[in-house]
Specification:
Elements lengths: L10 E6 L3 E6 L8 E5 L3 E4 L26 E2 L7 E2 L2 H8 L5 H12 L1 H6 L2 H19 L1 H9 L9 H14 L12 H14 E5 L14 E6 L7 E2 L5 E5 L11 E5 L8 E4 L8 H12 L6 H6 L4 H4 L18 E2 L2 E2 L11 H7 L10 E3 L10 E4 L5 E3 L4
Parallel strand pairs: 9-12
Antiparallel strand pairs: 1-2, 2-12, 3-11, 4-8, 5-6, 7-8, 10-11, 13-14, 15-16, 16-17
Protein name: SET domain-containing protein
Organism: Salix dunnii
């Protein structure tokens, strides 16, 4: 996948009016071009403590690959499983240290915590343990985590107090130089997780009755990828290849969906492109604290409720494209004939048409500057021959 290409030079960080920091192209970019490959500074399981033994899939607690054969258990707690002795050895000195092992065991064994705290709160407690552990094993990465977007004052004081009580009573971390397990720090960490975590998805089962929806196997903090702003029709999408045998299987790879000129902001969608206007507006405001005014939202804001309904069950998860004046393989997308539905072209060309998938399609990276006619789905992995090219 574009080995030897320095993606660091393809985008730069800029302050964008009304949107904060964002990533902007430093040169014309082609569809399929990889603009970012980012590794996580922190990974933690998305499975609630009460359900980790009952998941459909079993994942390695280091690399989060699906475990297909015999697994290796943590020699101390026996709850955490790893795909190989290599992953176990690496975890014991990084993500599953003695303190992490003891803390997760205490949370799991505390019936009061499990019975009186929601699944979301259990997951947040696991994140806090992973974050405090990061401060011990990699202080520089902990500082990067604290530098990311997210304001402590925006978090619910009751939730912060509840999690502070759990952490300080059940699993107080060793002293962190320059920090304490204060309410302020916990609030700041929760905010960083809320605004910057990416989900690594479970395998997609196209035959599921729930329409092919996937659950999250793990969450990761990706410092560079967190700089991408949202657009309901973005021009790039992210791929992950967790279940491959490649080194860096938990990396996020961001590829362009279509051509864009120099100076264009590169955007992802923070959630499924099929979501209707009211759903998108509500989720962005509640989860991210802003109202989107992209071209798609401006058009759909004028639609009736009946016109807006019905999208949610028609398209699946992940990322999409950007405002539709953007170029597609060197050609302008024609808005004149699509005033009422400017994103119809995007759905037709860049949405996977496999039953119950509805992932996003992006070309494979160009070869010798020649664009690829093959598009890959970032949800099911299907390959489409792009007849438009």
């Amino acid at each position: 996948m574009s080995a030897g290409v320095n993606t660091e030079t393809l985008v730069r960080v800029e302050e964008i009016q009304g949107r904060g920091r964002g990533l902007v192209s430093t040169q014309p970019l082609r569809g399929g071009q990889i603009v970012l490959r980012d590794s996580p500074i922190l990974l933690y399981s998305a499975l609630p403590l009460t359900k980790q033994q009952h998941s459909t899939f079993l994942y390695c607690d280091k690399c989060f690959k699906t475990i297909q054969s015999a697994s290796v258990s943590c020699p101390t707690c026996s709850h955490r499983r790893f795909c190989s002795p290599t992953c176990l050895s690496a975890a014991l000195v990084s993500s599953h240290t003695t303190w992490v092992c003891q803390s997760l065991s205490r949370l799991r064994d505390c019936q009061d915590f499990l019975q009186h705290h929601s699944v979301e709160r259990q997951t947040q407690a696991q994140f806090l343990i992973a974050a405090y552990n990061l401060a011990f094993v990699s202080p520089s990465d902990f500082q990067i985590l604290l530098s990311l977007q997210g304001r402590a004052e925006d978090e619910d004081p009751a939730i912060v107090q509840s999690l502070h009580s759990v952490i300080s009573s059940l699993c107080p971390p060793p002293p962190i130089e320059g920090f304490s397990t204060s309410l302020e720090l916990i609030a700041a960490l929760i905010a960083k997780d809320k605004f910057n975590a990416f989900g690594l998805m479970e395998p997609l089962n196209l035959n599921e009755e729930n329409g092919g929806q996937r659950s999250v196997r793990a969450y990761g903090i990706y410092p560079k990828a967190s700089l991408f702003n949202h657009d309901c029709l973005p021009n790039a999408c992210r791929f992950d290849y967790v279940d491959t045998n490649n080194t860096g299987n938990t990396d996020i790879v961001v590829r362009m969906i279509h051509d864009v000129p120099q100076g264009r902001e590169i955007c992802l969608s923070y959630f499924p492109v099929n979501s209707n206007y009211s759903t998108r507006r509500k989720r962005l405001l509640e989860d991210y604290g802003f109202t989107c005014d992209c071209d798609r939202c401006k058009v759909e804001a004028t639609w009736s409720d009946d016109e807006c309904d019905g999208d949610d069950n028609e398209v699946m998860e992940e990322d999409v494209d950007e405002p539709m004046e953007a170029e597609s393989d060197g050609e302008e997308i024609d808005n004149d004939n699509s005033t009422d539905f400017p994103h119809a072209y995007f759905f037709l060309r860049y949405m996977c048409n496999r039953n119950n998938c509805w992932g996003t399609l992006a070309p494979f990276p160009p070869s010798d500057a020649k664009p690829s006619n093959l598009l890959e789905c970032n949800a099911c992995g299907a390959i489409k021959n792009d007849e438009v090219c």
